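Before going further, learn to read the protein records used in this course. A complete example follows; check for yourself that the lines match position by position.
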Amino acid sequence: MRKLLLILLCLGYTPMVLFSQNIGGNVRASLVFQRWDIGNINDPISEGTMPVEVNYPVMENMHLQVNHFPAMAQFGDANMAGLSDTWIRGAYSFDDDRAMFSIGLGLPTGKTMLDSTQLIIARMLSQHAFKFHLPVYGQGLTLSAGIMYAYPVSENITVGAGLNYVFRNKYKYSTLMTTDYNPGDQIGCNVGGDFQIMDNFRGNVDFVFNYYTTDKLGGQQMFTSGPRFLTKIGLQYLMENVTYWLTAFYQTKAKNEIYSILNDKMEPEPKNSNITLRELHLGARITLSKTLAISILGEVRSYVENEFRHDWVDLAGGGAIGEMLISDQLSLFTGFKLFFGDGYFYHPDQSKRNPSFQGFEFQLGSQWNF
């Protein structure tokens, strides 16, 4: 089971933190509201999402997951509402849970064909530092597949490696477009390890590399995202009624390539426009009784400016999540987060390009097991 858990974590599956854990399926639904105030802009940017997730164990070694995110966003007098793409993911483990094959289908149910006002909202939602739950509503048909293998080196050490591929079909993201936009595909590999340092203390590390093919507009090559390198390190310490954790992320990207009209070919951008992401997440989950628990959360986001000296961010914040077990089938949860900091945000007046940021997030939801 530990080998399978490592595989799931490396492929991006997040285990539930609610009380009600069983071998059956579950439905998780919630309401999430996020708002950010930016010092050099009068109007806040906010978004409300209603994530719905269904997990169903088709067989003992086969798992199915469905995700959907209806949402509504507002920026000043402009607003945008719609559905997200619908994701159906499956995972099949074999070889005594040492290996897993996963496949995903992103159905194009999300909102595309945005008008000029909605494009502005979409750009605000896609800001890395704000981490809106639904930064992009629709991206056209998407297919993904991956395979992962974990090997127990010893009783205390398990290592794993995997490969994945993501295909993205062409679509029109704006009403202003007359030709299709064809986003590039993604090829990735990762290597990870899980270490039992002591009986109640464990750690894990994950290294990820992603390569992207070229985006095309109407068949013409336009843009190639630079390769991405991600390192994630995690620690977890267990006590009788408290679980402590700490996770650190570091991500960097190489230069993008852009089509040069002058030379009629793809060329590296003169300076790297990608930022370096650094994040630290820490917290403690305290079991108060058989039916109550609370998690105290802390988070730091420190993003290094790109070579154009743009887009740096320094944010810190935290919050709490409360969980209540109503019955063996039903759990409720609610929580909030607050963030404060500053960073780069474009403004015509250069003296106002490094404003303060304030963020707020609230969630309320339930999980039903069946």
Q: What stands out?
A: Helices lie at 2-10, 116-125. Residues 1-16 have pLDDT under 50 and may be disordered. The longest helix spans residues 116-125. Residues 244 and 284 are 4 Å apart (CA to CA).
